[in-house]
């Protein structure tokens, strides 16, 4: 029982950490219909920019808090520049193309970001420590050894929760949110009613970039900032489609389901069939969910009419 | 002037329906085939430039042929039938491992039934083709969700196949004949007593299979089944309302595609790598194939070739050029540049022509026709 | 020649109701189509005309009611089963296969008539080739009939709207249907093209004896072409009869026509 | 030209760059040292070219094809630093007659030179590593008999690399009666939470770590998070370098790993490298990183290759040699204590003697421990148990020979 | 027959500069397909101009060129210029144009399928900076024009009927309070009553608020009834233009576009097979 709870809680929490990455995907998809494969690379870029700036500032005698503020500012500027470049040179010219082409172009962008980020900021492992990484052992009275809860996971979950609430409000309640959804539906028609697509896309990519920055602070603390962070994109995908590509709360729900599901599967099912099953388990889970609801749990209905 | 159809009248529908109705195209193809089947082996045998070493054959042409085959398979599914798949790598793996099992003998101990299924080792060619068939079977299985799941959702769902088979071939020792490391070795390439060994022989083997399969694929996409696939791709509801059964159309696309991809996988393992592990068919391979298909042109067999060439060769060129020119850059920087340039190039191409090289070529042809007038 | 006056009923729709969530698109609609006639369905926007066609060819499944086609009653039919039974249709929003040429689009319409399987098609020789040529012949006849020879190799995405509608009609004809459902075939056409289209519809009806059900908002066309007209409003059939009867029906004038035409 | 060409397959980008780069730096610096200090190997200059593989097998094969016939005599030998590429190249190198040196990695069965004439898994295979690790565990527990009933888990990178030790550990588990659990971690290894939760429940007495790249530091961090004592973790020699522990900060204190004979630190050869290479501005990394674990492994690896060529020159003459000739040199390599001292590697290595039937050369190792700032050697030399390993090597390699229809050489008849 | 030089348009309003003038534009799709071969036209301030022509004549293309939407469809204006309200359209982004008061109703019922009908209408007001209440007021006005939309205001637009979608996109354009509306086939798929309603709206807005219209329309009858001026496009060229009632009484136009050759309208059932396409170009 104790172990089950522990695995469950650990799974839920780490699932939410994936939601942080998935959120960036959702933002961009919701606003432009672009399935942004580069989100993982953007987390890497944001993380590298942040950690390198921090190192430099601390080495130059800035107090830690000032370094953090400046570092985050610097990395936000980098993400803004990236957003602008992407809109200007890649996604902008591809307006009104079909989803697959746009998807492929973001893989192109992934290459560019990976190459550029490592070239500019280096390809080592850079430790980042913004959040505590040790653990609490709760309910020790009830279970022998208590139940382990990682502080970092709790932080991550908190941040993800706040982000989701904010973004969901933004999308549902504001005029810009409505315009974003219109753009995702039909680029050309959005043009024709006067929605400034370039500006909107810049804003969304920037938002996705900032979400990537937030994800980078958490994941950077967890793994150290390094190339492997880009693999998070692949872990975030099942989270994303379980929740539904267009749903911000769905990203969290998907994270919870994937996290809990795969951890429980790995711990209880894994040993009997060889272990290491969590990678595909998340995807099979996603497949199963899609078979029941082809648009994910919270996604917009796929419109089929003649 | 050079590219005119004027004067080439077609008097029967059969003529009109030939693969290359225009004679200039036919000549170009004949020249190409001549070079591929006769020119290259000749040059390579006598080590004439650019075949001074095996490099061109081994490291460029061989993988190009095999990946072009895989790209054709992928194109059938993605380009013709519109079912985006990120699992092509897995189907290559299925082809490779099935062929491996068949070529080394299959033994399935059904202990609880009290007997075992045993198949003696099959000849290599039979193993490769049967490997393709098994891939086709699995393809059908994984195609079933496509009846409900569409578009990018399907793309992500196909990753389930990718990761599942990555895992299965790594973790289930039966597939690797209990090799301790999980890495397996291809059997000797024995074709009816002829042992294919040298790069030239390997090249010819792949070329032959590729030409054959490309022809069959081209025939399929030109006939009714191909039209069914394209109809499903362009508008599945309307397709259904004119009598196309989505079940049949989609599953045949999955089957044919997986078959070709599976054969390509078996060739990749047997002929190119010789010894491999599941990582050779990872998600990167799937993405690479998808790239080839999209850059080459969705729904174009010829585009698959061009796409394969582009995706395979450009990174190598980008990597080679600085060293050849003697630019004093560290390999690290070169690789980063390679990434940046390759990524930019992909974006640039997609912007220039979202429908890939195939469309560029057809626009080029149209321009040639109108030449010297711009439109 | 036309077999218009037989009283044989080809399609019988009986008490069909259809709703989507709160929206009741069809409420207990019954009507029939006689063999060989041109049957028009008219009504204001959102009356449920398209939904009616969708029910007939199995794209929507009615909540209640039955559909009897050629004497067989079905309640849950898949669209391709309808197609196999001999129902073809065109769409309100052109639903062509955008990436394919006009010729391929029409050839696709012959899917149900293709006999040779995958392997033969891959080899494309002997009987498979012969069969393909045969279909090509039939399709060329249709192309000829619709006067679209010049555009057969053009990808349909590039065609202007009116020609797309014509190709769509060609695709439906290629199925050699018994019942042809046309959803606003003349929307977005100018007079000349409407005349062409009318001629095709009348000719199909005359030459092949194809039964036609037609939705159209141009009253002149409807009144001239159809044998009988059914009028829907808010999912209810409010009138049914010959063009003249309908034209003078008060409910119809009220709901749809406005001033009498 | 009087030049001997040596290709370098490296990875300085991608998920494993952190570990690939220092290694390649060591290799390059040592070749430069030979050129700068000695003017080459007996005046035959070393010509190198680097090719980036990104740890990907197909890129590795492409690199190999590109470089194998460069230089006046083609590649002297190849060293891919990737088990996957090693597997893919094994057959090709044998056909091309180019030795493949896989120092401390690669396929364990290739130790048998009779079947694998061109493979040289020098200094230690994973089977040796597994045995040494268990020996150390036994020593900490106070004797082999104490192993009985203990629980030992293997946390491994789910790839041929990580799976290599499993058969050996199974043999050992049977022999000593401990309970052995393999726990796979999927590439690249950033997600290990469930594995560590399982470990927390199961409480194994020791956890062996067979990781690479980010997997190592993640393992250490997760261990800290579930409060598993780092002292009870023993990494293989690829899980015991600086990048594996520094990201974990203080959480890594106490973590142990095997050493491929050498560890971190500076030895006489480093002084030469500083003097002849770095002083001239030709160094390939920051001087501060000279002497790190993987850097040192790079120079050891380069040294073995160079000595192999030197040995071959004794027989074939002081000129550029072909891969086949170098193979002979490698197979007859015999580095005595004195020679090692002469080369400036005293204290890093034990004597090495390669032969036709034993391409491994030695099977010695030590254990080191991270104290938060540097690696400290905490054990004596262990030698892996040949009696245990050799039957397994023979069995597996003979199966390979049968599969590939290879006629094993008769080692007794080799000169 | 061919009226080639587009003189100053003869509408009796002030001689002020036209709100829109298109000068000899040429449009190429996909780098090779030449669609417009020199089209010139003018819309006077506060005028209603009809653009007539067969399928594929290039009406839609002309309108898209004006609102600068061609780019996204891989088309470009290779020659000529377009001036809206004194500014060169080519240098403006589509949303700038909307902000300046020129909005297009695209053909093909391009409503945003996942948004509700009401949300669709509200996106039309995106460029507006005035108060919420003004927007709400306009919303009510649109609902008053199209009562059918009121019933369906909370339905997902993708699931509404063809005609409802058409009303939705027209209403959406009205929401931006434009100076000029480019209407592409507004009457397509609408019931006769609604068609009349649309043209009444056009007249109303034109008279009361001085909105200018450029109408690409197949319903020639209606279009010429409400327009002040008309252009006839064939095969990418303007083949005829003139005042609406002059066009309506022209014998050729009467026969080919209005179907009233001679005295009586011919029944659609009795059409015989004859060809007469491209008669002005022969
Ligand atoms: N799949 C669906 N989901 C929800 N509502 C639907 C769906 N299909 C149709 N409706 C609704 O049913 C009603 C009837 O629609 P239908 O398309 O049949 O109208 P119609 O008579 O064809 O109108 P039009 O002349 O405008 O095309 C409409 O109000 C429409 O919004
Ligand atoms: N995206 C495109 N690519 C290629 N050709 C195109 C494209 N769009 C339109 N065309 C071609 O341009 C010509 C003019 O088309 P346009 O849509 O402007 O005609 P239209 O007058 O609006 O016709 P309709 O009354 O059918 O709407 C047509 O011949 C069409 O084939
Ligand atoms: Mg309708
Ligand atoms: Mg138009």
TrEMBL record, chain A:
A Gene Ontology molecular function term of the record: transmembrane transporter activity
Membrane topology field: Multi-pass membrane protein
One of the Pfam families matching this protein, by short name: BPD_transp_2
GO cellular component, one term: plasma membrane
Alphabetical UniProt keywords: Amino-acid transport, Cell membrane, Membrane, Transmembrane, Transmembrane helix, Transport
Record-annotated membrane-spanning stretches: 6-29, 41-59, 65-87, 99-121, 154-171, 199-219, 239-260, 267-292
GO biological process: amino acid transport
Keyword Cell division among UniProt keywords: no
Record InterPro entries: ABC_transp_permease, BCAA_transport_permease
Subcellular location: Cell membrane
Keyword tRNA-binding: no
Main location: membrane
PANTHER family in the record: AMINO ACID ABC TRANSPORTER PERMEASE PROTEIN, BRANCHED-CHAIN AMINO ACID TRANSPORT SYSTEM PERMEASE PROTEIN LIVH
Family: Belongs to the binding-protein-dependent transport system permease family. LivHM subfamily.
Protein name in the entry: ABC transporter permease
UniProtKB/TrEMBL annotation, chain B:
Keyword Transmembrane annotated: yes
Cited Pfam families: BPD_transp_2
TM annotation in the entry: 27-49, 55-78, 90-112, 124-144, 151-172, 203-221, 251-275, 287-314
InterPro entries, per database record: ABC_transp_permease, LivM-like
Intracellular or extracellular location(s): Cell membrane
Membrane topology, record value: Multi-pass membrane protein
Main location: membrane
Keywords, in A-Z order: Cell membrane, Membrane, Transmembrane, Transmembrane helix
Protein name from the UniProt record: ABC transporter permease
Native source species: Bradyrhizobium centrolobii
From TrEMBL, chain C:
Function statement: Involved in beta-(1-->2)glucan export. Transmembrane domains (TMD) form a pore in the inner membrane and the ATP-binding domain (NBD) is responsible for energy generation.
Organism classification: Bacteria, Pseudomonadati, Pseudomonadota, Alphaproteobacteria, Hyphomicrobiales
Ranges where the ABC transporter domain occurs: 11-259
One cellular-component annotation, GO: plasma membrane
Protein name (record): ABC transporter ATP-binding protein
UniProt KW keywords: ATP-binding, Nucleotide-binding, Transport
Family annotation (InterPro entries): AAA+_ATPase, ABC_AA/LPS_Transport, ABC_transporter-like_ATP-bd, BCA_ABC_TP_C, P-loop_NTPase
Molecular function in Gene Ontology: ATP binding; ATP hydrolysis activity
Domain of life: Bacteria
UniProtKB/TrEMBL annotation, chain E:
GO MF: ATP binding; ATP hydrolysis activity; branched-chain amino acid transmembrane transporter activity
Keyword Nucleotide-binding: yes
Keywords: Amino-acid transport, ATP-binding, Nucleotide-binding, Transport
GO biological processes: L-amino acid transport
SUPFAM superfamilies per UniProt: P-loop containing nucleoside triphosphate hydrolases
Segments forming domain ABC transporter: 20-260
Pfam families reported in the protein's UniProt record: ABC_tran
InterPro entries reported in the protein's UniProt record: AAA+_ATPase (IPR003593), ABC_transporter-like_ATP-bd (IPR003439), BCAA_Transport_ATP-bd_LivF (IPR052156), P-loop_NTPase (IPR027417)
PROSITE patterns, A to Z: ABC_TRANSPORTER_2 (PS50893)
Family, similarity comment: Belongs to the ABC transporter superfamily.
PANTHER family associated with the record: ABC TRANSPORTER SUBSTRATE-BINDING PROTEIN, HIGH-AFFINITY BRANCHED-CHAIN AMINO ACID TRANSPORT ATP-BINDING PROTEIN LIVF
Main function: Involved in beta-(1-->2)glucan export. Transmembrane domains (TMD) form a pore in the inner membrane and the ATP-binding domain (NBD) is responsible for energy generation.
Protein name: ABC transporter ATP-binding protein
Lineage: Bacteria, Pseudomonadati, Pseudomonadota, Alphaproteobacteria, Hyphomicrobiales
């Amino acid at each position: 029982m104790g172990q089950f709870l522990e695995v469950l809680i650990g799974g839920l929490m780490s699932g939410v950490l994936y939601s942080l990455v998935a959120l960036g995907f959702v933002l961009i998809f919701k606003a432009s219909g672009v399935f942004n494969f580069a989100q993982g690379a953007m987390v890497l870029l944001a993380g590298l920019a942040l950690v390198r700036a921090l190192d430099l500032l601390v080495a130059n005698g800035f107090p830690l808090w000032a370094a953090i503020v400046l570092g985050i500012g610097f990395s936000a500027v980098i993400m803004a520049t990236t957003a602008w470049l992407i809109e200007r040179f890649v996604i902008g010219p591809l307006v009104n193309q079909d989803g697959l082409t746009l998807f492929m172009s973001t893989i192109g962008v992934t290459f560019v970001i990976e190459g550029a980020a490592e070239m500019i900021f280096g390809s080592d492992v850079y430790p980042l420590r913004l959040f505590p990484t040790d653990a609490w052992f709760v309910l020790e009275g009830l279970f022998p050894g208590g139940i382990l809860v990682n502080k970092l996971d709790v932080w991550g979950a908190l941040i993800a929760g706040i982000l989701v609430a904010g973004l969901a409000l933004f999308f549902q309640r504001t005029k810009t949110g409505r315009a974003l959804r219109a753009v995702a539906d039909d680029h050309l028609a959005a043009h024709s009613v006067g929605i400034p697509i370039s500006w909107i896309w810049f804003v969304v990519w920037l938002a996705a970039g900032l979400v990537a920055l937030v994800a980078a602070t958490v994941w950077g603390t967890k793994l150290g900032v390094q190339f492997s962070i880009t693999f998070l994109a692949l872990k975030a995908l099942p989270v994303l489609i379980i929740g539904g590509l267009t749903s911000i709360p769905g990203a969290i729900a998907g994270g919870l389901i994937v996290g809990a599901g795969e951890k429980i599967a790995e711990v209880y099912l894994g040993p009997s069939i060889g272990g290491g099953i969590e990678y595909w388990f998340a995807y099979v889970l996603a497949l199963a969910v899609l078979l029941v609801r082809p648009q994910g749990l919270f996604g917009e209905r796929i419109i089929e009419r003649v | 002037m050079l590219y005119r159809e004027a004067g080439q009248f077609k008097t029967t529908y059969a003529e009109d329906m030939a693969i290359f109705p225009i004679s200039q195209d036919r000549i170009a193809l004949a020249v190409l085939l001549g070079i591929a089947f006769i020119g290259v082996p000749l040059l390579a045998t006598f080590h004439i430039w650019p075949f001074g070493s095996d490099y061109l054959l081994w490291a460029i042409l061989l993988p190009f042929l095999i990946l072009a085959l895989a790209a054709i398979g992928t194109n059938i599914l993605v380009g013709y039938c519109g079912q985006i798949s990120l699992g092509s790598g897995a189907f290559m793996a299925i082809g490779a491992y099935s062929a491996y099992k068949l070529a080394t003998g299959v033994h399935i101990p059904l202990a609880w039934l009290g007997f075992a299924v045993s198949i003696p080792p099959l000849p290599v060619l039979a193993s490769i083709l049967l490997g393709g068939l098994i891939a086709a079977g699995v393809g059908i299985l994984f195609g079933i969700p496509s009846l409900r799941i569409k578009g990018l959702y399907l793309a992500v769902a196909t990753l389930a196949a990718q990761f599942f088979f990555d895992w299965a071939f790594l973790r289930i020792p039966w597939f690797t004949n209990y090799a301790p490391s999980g890495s397996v070795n291809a059997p000797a390439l024995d074709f009816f007593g002829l042992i294919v060994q040298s790069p030239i022989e390997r090249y010819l083997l792949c070329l032959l299979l590729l030409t054959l399969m490309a022809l069959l694929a081209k025939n399929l996409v030109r006939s009714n089944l191909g039209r069914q696939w394209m109809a499903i791709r362009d508008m599945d509801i309307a397709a259904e309302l004119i009598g196309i059964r989505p079940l049949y159309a989609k599953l045949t696309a999955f089957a044919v595609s997986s078959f070709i991809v599976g054969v390509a996988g078996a060739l990749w393992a047997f002929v190119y790598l010789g010894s491999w592990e599941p990582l050779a068919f990872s998600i990167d391979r799937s993405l690479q194939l998808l790239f080839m298909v999209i850059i080459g042109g969705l729904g174009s067999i010829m585009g698959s070739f061009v796409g394969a060439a582009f995706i395979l060769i450009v990174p190598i060129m980008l990597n080679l050029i600085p060293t050849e020119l003697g630019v004093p850059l560290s390999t690290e920087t070169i690789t980063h540049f390679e990434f940046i340039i390759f990524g930019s190039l992909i974006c640039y191409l997609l912007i220039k022509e979202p429908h890939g090289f195939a469309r560029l070529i057809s626009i080029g042809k149209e321009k040639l026709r109108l030449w010297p007038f711009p439109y | 020649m036309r077999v218009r006056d037989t009283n044989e009923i080809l399609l019988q729709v009986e008490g069909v109701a259809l709703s989507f969530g709160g929206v009741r698109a069809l409420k207990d609609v019954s009507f029939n189509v006689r063999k060989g006639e041109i049957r028009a369905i008219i009504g204001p926007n959102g009356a449920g005309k398209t939904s009616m066609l969708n029910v007939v060819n199995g794209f929507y499944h009615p909540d209640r009611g039955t559909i009897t086609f050629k004497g067989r009653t079905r309640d849950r039919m898949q669209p391709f089963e309808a197609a196999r039974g001999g129902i073809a249709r065109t769409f309100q929003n052109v639903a062509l296969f955008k990436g394919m040429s006009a010729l391929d689009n029409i050839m696709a319409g012959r899917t149900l008539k293709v006999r040779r399987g995958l392997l033969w098609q891959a080899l494309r020789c002997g009987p498979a080739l012969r069969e393909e040529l045969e279909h090509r012949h039939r399709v060329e006849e249709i192309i000829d009939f619709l006067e679209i020879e010049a555009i057969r190799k053009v990808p349909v995405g590039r065609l202007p709207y009116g020609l797309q509608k014509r190709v769509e009609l060609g695709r439906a004809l290629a199925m050699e249907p018994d019942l042809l459902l046309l959803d606003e075939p003349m929307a977005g056409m100018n007079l000349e093209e409407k005349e062409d289209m009318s001629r095709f519809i009348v000719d199909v009806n005359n030459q092949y004896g194809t039964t036609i059900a037609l939705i159209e908002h141009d009253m002149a066309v409807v009144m001239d072409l159809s044998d009988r007209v059914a009028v829907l409003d808010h999912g209810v059939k409010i009138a049914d009869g010959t063009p003249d009867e309908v034209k003078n029906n008060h409910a119809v004038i009220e709901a749809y026509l406005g001033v009498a035409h | 030209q009087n030049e001997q060409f040596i290709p370098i397959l490296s990875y300085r980008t991608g998920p494993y760059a952190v570990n690939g780069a220092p290694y390649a730096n060591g290799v390059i610096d040592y070749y430069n040292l030979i050129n700068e200090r000695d003017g080459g190997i007996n005046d035959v200059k070393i010509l190198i070219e680097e090719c980036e593989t990104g740890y990907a097998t197909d890129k590795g094969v492409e690199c190999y094809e590109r470089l194998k016939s460069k230089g006046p005599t083609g590649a002297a030998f190849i060293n891919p630093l990737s088990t996957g590429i090693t597997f893919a190249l094994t057959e090709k190198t044998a056909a091309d007659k180019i030795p493949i040196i896989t120092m401390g990695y690669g396929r364990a069965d290739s130790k048998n030179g009779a079947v694998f004439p061109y493979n040289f898994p020098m200094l230690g295979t994973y089977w040796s590593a597994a045995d040494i690790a268990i020996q150390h565990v036994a020593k900490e527990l106070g004797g082999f008999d104490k192993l009985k009933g203990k629980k030992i888990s293997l946390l491994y990178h789910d790839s041929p690399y990580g799976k290599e030790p499993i058969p050996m550990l199974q043999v050992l588990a049977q022999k000593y009666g401990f309970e052995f659990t393999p726990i796979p971690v999927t590439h690249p290894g950033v997600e290990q939470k469930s594995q560590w939760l399982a470990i927390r429940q199961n409480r194994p007495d020791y956890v062996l770590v067979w990781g690479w790249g980010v997997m190592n530091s993640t393992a250490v961090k997760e261990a800290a998070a579930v409060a598993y004592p780092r002292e009870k973790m023993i990494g293989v020699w690829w899980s015991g370098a600086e990048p594996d522990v520094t990201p974990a900060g203080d959480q890594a204190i106490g973590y142990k790993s095997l050493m491929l004979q050498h560890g971190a630190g500076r030895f006489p050869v480093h002084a030469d490298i500083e003097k002849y290479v770095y002083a001239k501005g030709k160094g390939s990394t920051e001087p501060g990183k000279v002497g790190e674990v993987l850097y040192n492994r790079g120079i050891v690896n380069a040294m073995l290759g160079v000595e192999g060529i030197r040995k071959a020159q004794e027989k074939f003459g002081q000129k550029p040699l072909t891969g086949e000739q170098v193979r002979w040199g490698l197979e007859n390599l015999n580095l005595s204590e004195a020679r090692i001292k002469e080369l400036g590697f005293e204290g890093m290595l034990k004597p090495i003697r390669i032969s036709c039937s034993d391409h491994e050369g030695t099977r010695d190792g030590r254990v080191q421990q991270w104290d938060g700032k540097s690696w400290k050697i905490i054990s004596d030399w262990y030698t892996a148990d040949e009696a245990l390993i050799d039957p397994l090597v023979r069995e597996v390699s003979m199966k390979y020979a049968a599969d590939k229809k290879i006629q094993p050489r008769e080692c007794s008849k080799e000169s | 027959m061919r009226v080639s030089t587009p003189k100053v348009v003869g509408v009796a309003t002030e001689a002020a500069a036209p709100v829109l003038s298109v000068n000899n534009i040429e449009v190429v799709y996909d780098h090779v397909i030449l669609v417009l071969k020199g089209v010139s036209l003018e819309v006077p301030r506060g005028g209603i101009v009809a653009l007539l022509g067969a399928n594929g004549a290039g009406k839609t293309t002309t309108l898209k060129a004006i609102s600068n939407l061609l780019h996204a469809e891989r088309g470009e204006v290779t020659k000529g210029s377009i001036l809206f309200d004194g500014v060169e359209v080519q240098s403006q982004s589509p949303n700038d144009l909307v902000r300046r008061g020129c909005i297009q109703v695209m053909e093909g019922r391009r409503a945003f399928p996942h948004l509700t009908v009401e949300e669709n209408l509200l996106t039309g007001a995106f460029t507006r900076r005035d108060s919420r209440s003004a927007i709400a007021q306009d919303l009510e006005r649109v609902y008053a024009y199209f009562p059918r939309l009121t019933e369906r205001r909370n339905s997902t637009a993708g699931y509404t009927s063809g005609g409802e979608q058409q009303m939705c996109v027209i209403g959406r354009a009205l929401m931006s309070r434009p100076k000029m509306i480019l209407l592409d086939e507004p009457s397509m798929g609408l019931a006769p009553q609604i068609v009349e309603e649309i043209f009444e709206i056009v007249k109303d807005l034109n008279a009361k608020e001085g909105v200018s219209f450029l109408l690409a329309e197949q319903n020639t009858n209606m279009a010429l009834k409400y327009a002040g001026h008309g252009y006839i496009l064939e095969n990418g060229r303007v083949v005829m233009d003139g005042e609406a009632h002059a066009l309506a009484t022209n014998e050729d136009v009467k026969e080919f576009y209005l179907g009233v050759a001679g005295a009586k309208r011919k029944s659609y059932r009795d059409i015989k097979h004859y060809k007469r396409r491209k008669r002005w170009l022969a």
